[in-house]
DNA sequence: TGAAACATATTGTATGACAAATAGCGATAA
DNA sequence: TTATCGCTATTTGTCATACAATATGTTTCA
């Protein structure tokens, strides 16, 4: 029906990026299963009508993200998904293409529920003045958003991402990165609810606890915030996200 | 003094991997700071005496891991560390080279404390029979290790890693990967303590809770386990890991 | 003053050749 | 028959060179 089902790789982008996208989606979708070997480079090249240079750079990207391994004569094989960098923005994007929304939103929520209270508590201890100003301004942007849904969502995402960065623990940062793209959809869903007054209060509680350097209070406030966010999404989508 | 200070890149490995390692360490160490642009490819090539092909494949890997961005004429720039894939095994390895041990162990512990109880609880709900068998056999290997430190450490690492995989939530898996390399050092430290009887009991508690599908019990047992593990490491190293 | 055309540096792509590694086969010997 | 060694062929890895595409800065012109 649709000749161009998904404009995932606009022609403007570099060739090796488009190819990596194409292969990445195919792998994530399961066209090539774990342990399987891809066709040899030469064959892949003529299949797509590109040079080996571009193809190898595309493969090199996928190898770096843990999707593939290669060795001479053995070929290029798909690794077990346990080795993939699932928090990588590209891989996440490919997953979103092929996984149903509810499933991946639910899984991300499970991770958030584990990490965000801890991140808030760490931020309360480790945040610099600059971090506090950033959180303050993210929060202010939420307040100022008014009825503008788009602005609200951006500010909301920025606020949560800033919490992760304020931990000054780089192992938390990849999770914070999810607030740039992977969680936008969830926030857009939640933004349609008429719960903004309550959301502002709850975000304010987290902000205050961090600014006043009270880790346990920050932890508690984040737990409350996420709990209610869950309820909102559940309510709006009509599914139970936590069986 | 020492001509080969660190055997990070044995000559056996592929050239582009050695180069990526070298550049990766240099970037992580701060030789090239965030926002800075690297020398042009041509120059990098003649600096190291290699072809542009190999150099570009090395750069492509670093770009895929979020360390670099490149565009024509603008050159190749170092990205803000917030965009790096800090859970990636390679990046972790490079960090270990240049960061003091206590700092990165402490930060990893902070992440574990947040995620591992949640992972155990999820595993109690989502684990398949195969997952349960795996955990069982990891645990048995710990018991069977006897006085063999190396076996104990391997089994211990495997047990914790298996918990993350048993969540069937792929966003937890990159954290579980840390138990393959990044946390070995910590486990080796803890293994020197004479607390094995207690450790076996505590690991057994987590295992039983997961097998009997009791999430809140698994959560609690994991909290206890990590709490004591922290004490052990603190005791042995003589530092306070949590200020 | 401003905008548009042009020169230039740098990354991106193509091509063709050769090197290195390794799985699989075959030959050889015990 | 069985095990070991070595050969061959396939596939990835590296090299050299040329040209294309893109963004920057400068120069020219209205």
Could you explain how this protein is built, in words?
Two copies of one chain form a homodimer. In chain A, 65% of the residues lie in helices and 3% in strands. Chain A is mainly alpha-helical and 243 residues long. Chain A folds into two domains: 1-99, Winged helix-like DNA-binding domain superfamily/Winged helix DNA-binding domain (Arc Repressor Mutant, subunit A), CATH 1.10.10; 100-237, GntR ligand-binding domain-like (Four Helix Bundle (Hemerythrin (Met), subunit A)). Chain A has a two-stranded antiparallel ribbon. In chain A, strand 1 (68-71) and strand 2 form a beta hairpin. In chain A, helix 1 (15-29) crosses helix 4. The structure holds a DNA duplex (30 and 30 nucleotides).
Give me the secondary-structure topology.
Two copies of one chain form a homodimer.
Chain A: H1 15-29, H2 41-48, H3 52-64, E1 68-71, E2 75-78, H4 89-98, H5 101-126, H6 129-145, H7 149-166, H8 173-176, H9 184-191, H10 196-211, H11 215-237
Antiparallel strand pairs in A: 1-2
The structure holds a DNA duplex (30 and 30 nucleotides).
Defining traits:
disordered N terminus; 3% strand; 243 residues; DNA-binding; Arc Repressor Mutant, subunit A; Four Helix Bundle (Hemerythrin (Met), subunit A); two-stranded antiparallel sheet; 2 domains; mainly alpha; homodimer
Oligomer: homodimer
Fold-level CATH name of the largest domain in chain A: Four Helix Bundle (Hemerythrin (Met), subunit A)
What's the structural domain tally of chain A? 2
Major sheet of chain A: 2 strands, antiparallel
Q: Largest interface: which pair?
A: A-B, 41 and 41 residues
Q: Can you name the CATH architecture of the largest domain in chain A? A: Up-down Bundle
Calculate the mean pLDDT score of chain A and round it.
Answer: 89
